[in-house]
Specification:
Two copies of one chain form a homodimer. With about 100 residues, the first copy, chain A, is α+β, with helices and mostly antiparallel strands. Chain A has one domain: Orthogonal Bundle (Arc Repressor Mutant, subunit A), CATH 1.10.10.10. Chain A has helices at about 5-15, 20-25, 35-40, 45-60, 75-90; strands spanning about 30-35, 60-65, 70-75. In chain A, a hairpin with a 2-residue loop joins strand 2 and strand 3 (about 70-75). In chain A, helix 1 (about 5-15) crosses helix 4 (about 45-60). The first copy, chain A, is elongated. The interface between A and B is medium-sized, with 35 and 35 residues. Chain A binds a DNA duplex (30 and 30 nucleotides) through helix 4.
Chain lengths: ~100, ~100
DNA sequence: CATACACATAGAAAAATGTCAATATGTTTT
DNA sequence: AAAACATATTGACATTTTTCTATGTGTATG
């Protein structure tokens, strides 16, 4: 997959703000439109819109437009990529034995 | 485990900065002291010290003091907690069927 | 014991991020 | 077509984060 350092920061920025973490908790119950998300968060509409953009940019959330509504949900594929990325970046190389290989 | 939103942000802040991601890449080759990390990064010594504090606070990195040196390494336990946390927060509830349970 | 070394902390400046009010855009309804 | 609605964008401000220089702390060494 070979993500750049920058791309990795974009993925995990989604989880660096308490309100965005809370949005994940709400979306765990299923797809929801922005106006319903707004009801459960103490945020202005533009602020929520900003957070949803950060979440969609990370790939962990996807938006689906339906008329004037935007429906947001957690992306299973995005989540898998993030988990794989986290595992990769925290894995320690075993191939460092000096006698057999580089 | 039941981590708070705040605790989750602390974990993933470790991966929200490109320099810190790069530090993970370097530590993947094994434990390293701060002065050697410094050689591979274009950062001042206090800035590196700051990033190492963020990383240790997240639990993904651990420091081991030996004389005047601090040796840093990736924490396998911390990584496991982070992966579990990421899986949990991105999991979608299945128990939402209206006919059988709440 | 004085000096050098490795790292941490304090304080300040700069950059990035979070927030809101106001406004714009696009869609539906009347 | 006008009005109402849902969401996005803009611009301003406050907070947080990143970064540095200067300095402090603890440890080893000459």
């Amino acid at each position: 997959m070979e993500l750049s350092n920058k791309q990795i920061t974009v993925i995990f920025k989604s989880l660096c703000d308490e309100n965005r973490v809370q949005i994940f908790r709400i979306l765990q119950n299923g797809e929801l439109c922005a106006c319903h998300l707004l009801e459960e968060l103490h945020l202005s509409q533009p602020t929520l819109s900003h957070h949803m953009k950060v979440l969609c940019d990370s790939g962990l959330v996807v938006g689906r437009k339906e008329g004037k509504w935007m429906h947001y949900s957690i992306s299973a594929e995005g989540a898998k990529i993030a988990v794989d990325c986290l595992k990769e970046i925290t894995a320690v190389n075993e191939s460092e034995c000096k006698c057999c290989n580089k």
